[in-house]
Amino acid sequence: MRNRIILHYGELTLKGCNRHSFVKKLRTNVRNKIKSLDLTWDVVSIHDRMFIEIPIDFTGDIDAIAEKLAEIPGIAWLSKVYWFSVKQYDIFGYKPELDKLDQLIEKLANETYQKGKSFAVRVKRSDKRFVKTSKELEMQLATIILKNTEWKNVNLNHADQYFYVDISSRGMAVHTNRIKAIGGLPVASTGKIMCLLSGGFDSPIAAYLMAKRGCTVDFVHFTASNIQASKLETYKVARIAQRISEFCGKVRLYLVPYTHFDLALMEKNLDYDLILFRRFMARVAQSLAEKNYAQCLVTGDNLGQVASQTMENIVSMTKSIEMPVLRPLLTYNKEEIVTLSRQLGLFDVCVEPYKDCCALISNTPKTKSLHEKLEHIEERFFDYEELIEDTLDEKQVIAFQFGKRIDFE
Length: 409
Description:
Elements: E1 2-8, H1 19-36, E2 43-46, E3 49-53, H2 62-69, E4 77-85, H3 99-111, E5 118-125, H4 134-148, E6 153-154, E7 161-168, E8 171-175, E9 179-180, E10 191-196, H5 202-212, E11 215-223, H6 236-248, E12 250-257, H7 259-265, H8 273-291, E13 296-298, H9 311-319, E14 325-326, H10 334-343, H11 347-350, H12 357-361, H13 371-381, H14 384-393, E15 396-401, E16 404-406
Parallel strand pairs: 5-6, 5-7, 10-11, 10-13, 11-12, 13-14
Antiparallel strand pairs: 1-3, 1-4, 2-3, 4-8, 4-9, 7-8, 12-15, 15-16
């Protein structure tokens, strides 16, 4: 008997002719995640799942590793299983060798016992060479649990504790409750985005949701000035990007100062300074995205949440560039965003005090604007080509892969 971690795809099983490419990408992502944990385990894909064989001499925390793997987009659920290989056990004989299975079920039942709670056994018999039906084996194992452990309550529909047995042509897997993963599509399977990242709650969640739909993610963040190289890794926004990389794999964070725009705006006393700044950020992000072959920009905009996110100002920002802008949080309310932030382990860093660059531009921002009017102001007062070039000349970059800082490529 060996230990394995089994990963189930979920949504990927619906991909038809394209399924192989999605599975291949997921397998690569899982391998890279395992490598980031300083492990050399192989990943094998079969039918609707993948499995990872755990070396017999491994003494680390398998449950902690499983929790890390559950953060990979594309995995629906996973579990740590006990594996009986057909090479070692006569599972498909006239009298199958099930003594070890009986002993294991009894052991797992004793380890998971909960006073007053209910249990159920679920058997999936994919290979019909196994002589017992699923129901027959379920009854056999449930009887062992009732006779030899303190479990007394069986609930076939809504049990508190499940014991699973999956029988395939390769062997038999036994496990208890499954670990729910984040689902979605494998990162790098649907395209590349450049996300405008702030120090708040919204944009990190927007990036996570896009990664969950298979996007490779890079970030651009606007700072008041350049940051000392020695302080880059501890900078709040860098730590946010670092946490997002746990889900996305490799991410790059570009930090660009908005000093040149601030100087160009100085003493002009323009009524639309906030939305003008947002349009400037969009143009810089588009230029950076094009250099990095990103196909879309992503923001954490949430309709009506603040002055810059009224319908009129969202439209004005979008019209300032040619690249599509995706806004996955547009219909979310703040409570939903904060709840998701807590679930993803982002809340503590996002809640740290931070001055948003948009708040520094204007104290009384306009809530309504027109693209044509803003375009006229920009043509009169700004040389955007020079502004963008000067801004990007001073950019800084820091890169992470699965939570670890790596050299920029």
